[in-house]
Amino acid sequence: MKIKITQVRSIIGTLKSHKATIKALGLGHPNNTVIKTKNPQILGMVNAVRHLVTVEEIAD
């Protein structure tokens, strides 16, 4: 199963850890989108920055 992660808010003014998480996900600017495999590590990262991103499941 894969998930599509889209950054919807800017990281300006957020915590350093949130900025690092967004960068680790491969995002960085609003409206950027990445597709990642759904696993506990990615879901934990998404959960940490859930106020900055939207997530959609993609069927394989």
Name its key features.
60 residues, alpha+beta, Ribosomal Protein L30, Chain: A, 28% strand
If helices are DSSP runs of H or I spanning 4 or more residues, what is the number of helices?
A: 2
Q: In order across it, which strands form the biggest sheet?
A: 2-1-3
**Euclidean distance between termini CA atoms:** 6 Å
How many beta-strand runs?
Answer: 3
Question: Please, what is the CATH homologous superfamily?
Answer: Ribosomal protein L30/L7
Instruction: Domain count, please report it.
Output: 1
By CATH reckoning, the class would read Alpha Beta
CATH architecture type: 2-Layer Sandwich
Describe this structure in words.
- The protein is of the alpha+beta class and 60 residues long.
- The protein has one domain (2-58): Ribosomal protein L30/L7 (Ribosomal Protein L30, Chain: A, 2-Layer Sandwich).
- It has two helices and three strands, in the order βαβαβ.
- It has helices spanning 16-25, 40-48, and strands at residues 2-7, 33-37, 53-58.
- Strands 2-1-3 form a three-stranded antiparallel sheet, with no helix packed on it.
- The chain is globular, with a radius of gyration of 11 Å.
- The termini are close together.
- The relative contact order is 0.38.
